[in-house]
Every structure is written in structure tokens, then in C-alpha cells.
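Continuing the series of single-chain predictions for the mutant panel. This is the parent chain; the variants come on the following pages.
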Amino acid sequence: MGERILVINPNSNEKVTAGMSEALEGFRHEGGPAIDCDTLHEGPPGIESQVHSDLVVGPLCRMVIEEQPHTAAFVIACFSDPGLHSLRETTERPVMGIAEAGVTTALNLGQQVGIISILPNSIPRHRRYFRAMGVEGAIAGDLPISMTVAELADEKKVFQRMSEVGARLRDEYGADVMVMACAGFSSQRAGLEEALQVPVVDPTQAAVGMAMTVLASRSRT
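Parent structure:
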């Protein structure tokens, strides 16, 4: 059996999982690893607080243990990177968090990173994480579109809000690269990049790209 990357959506919203899978279609190619997307059904409808993030760590660890025998790498597709370090202790397989991957990818594309978040209460959680990562000085700003995960189904409204927030981050905060801070934003990347005329990073794509690089490098050693 060939190598497989498992992308786990820690919330229970199947539409978010389907959107991620569609955004990753360009990463699937003959001879490359299989890229499967799955949903943590025990998770809340959206990871919208620190409590939500903490509650999914145990179920995520159990899922990784169950899937480990037929998985070469894992991607945790939530911008909170819930349980990332616990998961890395749970398995010897590579585990990528999309926040970590998204921000580090953005720093290869610009100097000041704008974070387009989902809700205002996401921002303190992000700031704590950026401090822990040591990248706080590279974050130009973090602004919310103030919509819940459930409301992301209205893609036209989401795009309008993201465009407005992205323009503020670019024009008022000096951001020269954007990171979409929710896996549910995946379908908006290309249109948003065209509208803002700066690079826009889908962190799920960034994390899968990193996982593919790690697996490719290991296969050549």
C-alpha cells in the first residue's frame, strides 16, 4: 500500500471537510501519497473557543492511534492546532498543524503577516500561540470576519467579509501576505488573492505541502 496523508478536521462539520478535500485536489497526483480527509465526529460543529480546542485533544489522540498503522503523516486542520504537541508524543508519524505551517509558509512570501480570523474570541488564542512560536513580531494584525463556522456556508457573504478584512490588514496594518485562519475558508483562497493582490496562504494546503516534503525527503535517505 502506498503512503497516505490523513487530514483531520477536528470539528464535526462535514461541509468543512469536503471543502478542504476539494482545495487539496491539486496536491493529488499519480505516484504521490494518497491525501484523505476525515472528520472528527466527536468534535463540536466548530472550534470557536479555547474550550472547544481543548476538548478535542483526547478524541484526536485516539483517532491518530487508530489510523497510525495505515497513515504516513497527519495534518490537524484547525487553526488552533489543537493537541499538536500531545499528538506528536502519541505517534512517531509526522504531525503537521495548519497554524504552524500556515504562518511559517507566509514568512517565506512576505514580511508582515495578516491573519484573517473567524471570530473575535479566536484572536487571544492566536496571539498566545504566536508568542509561543516566537513569530509575534511578524504578525501585522489579526482581524475577524465575525461569522461562525455554521455561517461559512454563505460563501458570497464570507468572501465579502474576508475581502474587507484583508483590505484593512493590507492598507491599515501593512500586511503584505495573508493567512486564512480557518480551515473552512479553503474555497476562498484564489479569489481573495486576486482581490487583494498580495499572497494568500491556505494553511491546510501549506501543512499538506510540508507533509509531502517530509515524506519525499525520507524516501530518499
